[in-house]
Amino acid sequence: MDRRTFLSGATIATAAAATACSQETPGDVAAPAVNRRRTRRLRMVTTWPANFPGLGTAADTTARLIGEMSGGELEVQVYGAGEIVGAFEVFDAVSNGVADMYHAAEYYWQGRSPAYNFYCAVPMGLTATEIMAWVEFGGGQELWDELSAQFNIKPFQAGNTGHQMGGWFKREINALSDFRGLRVRMPGLGGDVIRALGGAAVALSGGEIYQALQSGAIDATEWVGPWNDLAFGFYREAPYYYGPGFHEPGSALAIGVNLGVWESLPAQHQAIVRAACRAANNQSIAEFTHHNGIALQTLIEDHGVQLRNFSDEIWREVGRVSEEVVANAANADAMSRRVYNSYVQSRRRSREWANVSETPYLQMRELVLGG
């Protein structure tokens, strides 16, 4: 008997029992109500350390909301990186049914398909609100479902860091020539851009970055933004803080649910998971925006951090190289090309709207209030 048939039968039996009990004589005493609700427990593995600010808390928020919205019928236990499987093993764990769901950044899976980069961030790509628009309304979710179904996974947006910073540098970067030989911690397609500029991109986990900066193994690093960067103390080793970042303009985080688990959920529980992921996504953007503003002030006023921006010359070359790097990744296979085409079309629409709305507004707000 499947779960839905069981629940339907249980509902009928409970209703019949309730009818029988209602036909009691005046002297009868009603029996205490018994809660027969069943709880389904799901295990979520993540690429983040347990309770990690912003990234890890987005996973915790999603799990909590699923439990609250379901009235306890779904209970999600969150496991940090290494508690069940390693950080970069969560995809396979969910795909193979070792765990029920993961919380991660999808560009970690670019080895399975370059298309996954577009569901987190690509150089000169979509901002947080723009990637939400593409996934929710521009065809992105349908392509994502098709991509991930190949790996037995059902994906959702469930967090976003907002715009990330360009990184921490030990020395100023004033010209393109300053990138030659520069050792920068930057993974993914952003790292490919650094290589194209003549630098050496290095992939390091979060826990390895500070020591690498301190020892001189790297000359610069990007991480996330002021909130997380302050906690890591990068300002002690690299005083020049460049922003905005070109590589991750609105990095989306994701929930991936084992497809068999997803299809076994009744429609009501599927709706709850969808709604919880959307709510966690919105809360994550608000959380990062709030804490980044506070942390940036602390970095400047208490630690003397010097904010910098890349020159127009650098930005033009970064833009040119980024388009080449991203297009080359899209040419890897037919699925990546379809995702890329959809992504670029959505970016074009978003740019046209931003050019007459948010962009000039922010410029005018700075002109009026900046002094």
TrEMBL record:
Pfam (any one): DctP
Coiled coil: none
Record flagged with keyword Signal: yes
Source organism of this protein record: Glycocaulis abyssi
Keywords (A to Z) from UniProt: Signal
InterPro entries: DctP_fam, SBP_TakP-like, TAT_signal, TAT_signal_bac_arc, TRAP_DctP_sf
PANTHER family with a match to the protein in the record: EXTRACYTOPLASMIC SOLUTE RECEPTOR PROTEIN, PTHR33376
Descriptive protein name: TRAP transporter substrate-binding protein
